[in-house]
Amino acid sequence: MDLSSLGLLGLFLGTFLAATVVPFSSDALYIAVMIATKQPLVCLLVGSVGNWLGSVTTYFLGRLCKWEWLEKTFKVKRETLEKQKVKIDKYGVWMALISWVPIIGDAISIGLGFYKTPAFWTLLMLFIGKVLRFGVWTLIYLQV
């Protein structure tokens, strides 16, 4: 199914899924729906909220993870987890601003949850990052 044919609902669903572990990029969808609806500010709101809620879901899934599960199920060594924790401790919630980056963004969201960064600030930074991402596409659209 082509999510762009669903308009704003498709945009919401696509941006939500793109921020979870589902391999999907929402940029082309965002642009297609923005062009089709000619409502760039509404698309900015819907896309940002959908993508943010997907990241919030991923963040809280990370909070549910246990070190022992990752070590046993995914064969991740404790040393690897401790090295990642050093990065999370160094950059903290600021990493959430780049959670929109393809491939690593989902890992960032899960990691922030797994290492239990402060939820309020993490979720706020996730939202700001999403608005900035789709804001850039919106500005490009408005300039064309």
Q: Can you describe this structure?
A:
- The chain has about 140 residues and is mostly helical.
- The protein has one domain.
- About 70% of the residues lie in helices and about 0% in strands.
- The chain has seven helices and no strands.
- α1 (about 10-20) packs antiparallel against α2 (about 25-35), α1 packs parallel to α3 (about 40-65) and α3 runs antiparallel to α7 (about 120-144).
- The two termini are about 30 Å apart.
* Strand tally: 0
The H/E string reads: HHHHHHH
Whole-number average pLDDT? 92
Radius of gyration: 16 Å
How does the major sheet shape up? none
Tally of separate domains: 1
Helix/strand structural class:
mainly alpha
Keywords:
144 residues; mainly alpha; 7 helices
Structure described in brief:
The protein is an all-alpha fold and 144 residues long. Helices cover 72% and strands 0% of the residues. The chain is elongated, with a radius of gyration of 16 Å.
Please render the helix and strand layout as text:
Layout: H1 8-18, H2 27-37, H3 40-64, H4 67-73, H5 78-91, H6 104-114, H7 119-143
Helix pairs in contact: 1-2, 1-3, 2-7, 3-6, 3-7
